[in-house]
Structure to design on (135 residues):
């Protein structure tokens, strides 16, 4: 459910030469990392996502710029505005999500618990709702 979604605060090493953040699977992650991918060059007004995963868990980081992640567990919706490169948004499986309001030159990094498999996607919102409601 949405209660399981939340912000991971990664370490930040503040430095007059420029700041540094990092993540380690065993220290900062609730899952074993199998893949990362990133979304960039998003034209103004475009949305990404619009699906849930059956098993894949993710952490989304706004490495650069800002965007909103809209989460939906089939009952409630919640919007997380990501605008700091040291925040990660944890999303468990079976949460519908889309991303919108990308700023110019924003860079979204996704860290995933599974390798890519189209069969792990649910892209039909009606089917998603039925699954959540046990139909
Ligand atoms: P998709 O996950 O639908 O994009 P969004 O982030 O907007 O939800 O992926 C778009 C396309 O890219 C789709 O055809 C599958 C392909 N793709 C891969 O081949 N490997 C990957 O790791 C990902 C995330 C997507």
């Amino acid at each position: 459910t949405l209660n399981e979604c939340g912000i991971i605060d990664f370490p930040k090493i503040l430095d007059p030469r420029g700041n540094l953040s990092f993540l380690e699977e065993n220290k900062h992650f609730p899952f074993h990392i199998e893949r990362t991918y990133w979304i960039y060059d998003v034209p103004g007004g475009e949305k990404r996502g619009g699906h849930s995963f059956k098993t894949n868990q993710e952490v989304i980081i706004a490495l650069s710029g800002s965007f909103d992640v809209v989460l939906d567990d089939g009952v409630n919706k919640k919007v997380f505005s990501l605008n700091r490169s040291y925040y990660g948004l944890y999303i468990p499986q079976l949460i519908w999500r889309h991303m919108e309001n990308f700023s110019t030159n924003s860079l979204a990094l996704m860290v995933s618990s599974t390798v890519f498999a189209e069969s792990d996607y649910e892209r039909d919102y009606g089917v998603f709702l039925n699954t959540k409601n046990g139909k």
About this structure: Residues 35, 37, 39, 48-49, 51, 116 surround thymidine-5'-diphosphate (CB under 6 Å). The longest helix spans residues 125-132. Helices lie at 25-28, 125-132.
